[in-house]
Amino acid sequence: MPKNDVRTASFEETLFEALVDDTSGTGGLTEAQARHEPVNFLRHAASLSMSKIADGLIDPKLVLAWLLAYLGAPSVFVGLLVPIREAGALLPQLFTAPRVQAMARRKWAWVAGSIGQGVVAAGIVLAALTLTGSVAGVVICALLAVLAVSRSVCSVSYSDILGKTVGRSRRGSATGLASSLGAGAVVIFALVLMTGLLDRATLVLVAITLAALLFLGAGLVFSTLREEPAPGQAGSAALGQLKLLRADPQLRRFIWARGLLTATALAPPYIVLLGAQAGQGTFDRLGALVLASSIASLLSSWVWGRMADRSSRKVLMLSALAGAAALLAAVLLDLTGASGTVWALPLVLFVLMIAYHGVRQGRSIYLVDMAPEGRRAAYTAVSNTVIGILLLGSGLFGALASLAGANVTLMIFAVMSLAAFGVAKGLDEIRD
Fold first, then answer.
1. How far apart are CA 109 and CA 45, in angstroms?
2. Which of 101, 189, 374, 419 is surrounded by the fewest CB atoms within 10 Å?
3. Number of helices and strands (H, E) in the chain?
4. Can you give the pTM of this predicted structure?
5. CA-based angle 237:110:94, to the nearest 5?
6. Which residues lie closer than 8 Å to 171 by C-beta, 6 or more apart?
7. At what angle do helices 200-222 and 171-195 cross, to 10 degrees?
8. What is the pLDDT of residues 6-37, one digit of tens each?
């Protein structure tokens, strides 16, 4: 081996050891994959960081919603953005998982999905520069649907690739590091948005262009991952994979916990509504919303990831308690008339987003560790499909609950989070 290769390997191993708690043992990897783990760990962190930065720069519920409003698209298209994004990213996984399982090197599925997102993001910029009104709404919503399907390919393949290339007790550190690095970059974007120094429309288009480049770069880096080929497995028929729900009680319990924990994702708009009712009209500005989420991710994802390496089950439990506490605090502050103070609801939203990022880290690592080797794609697809259906129904639920007021809705979400704590407590503790 050339000297420069030795130095590179030594640097990667040193950095790998500095970033994880425990480097002993193979963590369930084959001997060949264990040799490549340090370099694979860093490539996971780098590519996932770029992907997460891109996600923040092209966030449908904030950035694309603002862009469509700026282009004069009817509000119906703005309302379609989040359902298209969620349904497109989750529901197709039941059909794409069998194809991913049949691949010897599954990293190419993630690479294709990332490149697809980059191409679509570039298409959104082109549409924004040349179209307005309803036509812009139709085209951008259609492009977002393609982006979401591309993302679903990344999602359904990633847990299996992570499980094959990074050992157990190190996976949370990889995803947590990526989340924190990604959030740090999005914090800068949010601060620039809030300053008003640059024209907001120009800044948004530059951000989406950068997202396109980052998606393409993430795919390029991920293509260098050292994944040992494995015999392709014939996946079950799409609907046949749902039999896993009957066969594996732990998967059912995990999905129950994850479904209840969607409260942490669904609640923020109602906290913003409380702020508006209390006279905090500036609290729903684009930059402030992006900033709240990204700072929470920056400060918590790395910690959650390290904790998930020790016990992803306990991360789910703690996230459920933190989410319930934040939601109950929001209701209490409103009932006591304190929600109008400058610090109250921003602090509540910040804690809630910390809980949300804990849920994301805990559920991801628990699923990778729980699923049998070779079946991770199927487990991911079944879990995400069920959650996708639940999220599609959340719009109707939110509309009905909001008729009773934001406080009642937040109380329901708090009860869901407390119930999630009990369900997660009953999950098996995953051990080496």
1. 18
2. 374
3. 17, 0
4. 0.72
5. 20
6. 162, 163, 308, 309, 365, 368, 369
7. 160
8. 444 566 677 776 666 666 666 667 777 777 77
